[in-house]
Every structure is written in structure tokens, then in C-alpha cells.
Amino acid sequence: MSVAGGAVGLLLPAQMMRRTARSRRRSVLHAFSAFLDLVNVLLAGGAGIETALVASAEAGDGWVFEHLRACLVRARLRRRSPWHELRSLGIRWGIPELVEVAGSMSLSGEHGARIRTSLAARADSMRARQVAEIEAIAQSATERMGLPVMLLFVGFMVLLGYPALQEVVMNM
User: What domain range is 31 assigned to?
Assistant: First the structure.
């Protein structure tokens, strides 16, 4: 019993932590794509890149936007590029999409490429990936519900057919 309890005590918290981390990573990606959309809108309105980043981070609420604001403040205090701090945040959290966006934006900033179009493309691709993931989860849930619905239908048919079957058996 103690060995089984010890195994459950070791595996259950780790599994719960993995599930929580997966959920948090999804919420980070969702919030970060919204952040990129806000940055893109502000850049289209004529704001500078750093102003757009700070204003976008301040526009959102929740723990992801709090970390984005702290990351941008750290970048300003250390006199570093905001993309460098976002890259380190992505590495720390283990989110490759954040690292990719930060890397491409730092290249865009250094080589003078159009940051706005690059941000829009990244936000669109992140959103498309999230939609595909959500559809896959919904399809999986639909497939899992097939057997319970079928069993419910069979039970309903038995419930409807039992009185008729009983009547036939009694009249024989």
C-alpha cells in the first residue's frame, strides 16, 4: 500500500503540473497573439515600435500582460532591445513561438525590414495554429462522446421496447 501511495504521490502532482503548464502555455500564446495584434494596430496608427509595445502591454490585463509589462520595463531599465527581453522570457517559459517572434523582430529592427507586416504575419500564423489546435481538441471531444451517446440510445430503446416485449411474452 505504501509503495502504491508513494507512486501516486510522485506521479499525480507531476501530471497535474504538466496539465497546468500546458494550459498556461495556451493562454500565453493566446494573449501574445492579441498583444501582437495591438502592436500592429498602433504601428499602423503611426506610433513608434517601443511606444506601440508599451501601450499594447498596458492595454491588456491578466498575468500574461503583467509579465509582458515587466519584461518591457526590464528592457528599458537595462537599455536593451525589447525583443531581447521577450526572447529571454520565451526561453524561460519554454515557448518557442515567443522566441521565434522575438528573433524575427530583432532581425527586422536591425535590418530595417517592415516590422508591421512581419508582426501581422506572425500574429496570423499564431492565430491559425491556435484555431487548428482548438478544432482538434473539439474533434477529440466529439469522438469521445460517441460511445456514451450510443449507449444512451441503446438504453432508451431497451426502455421503450421492454413493455412491448413483456406483453408479447405474457400473452404466449
Answer: 2-147
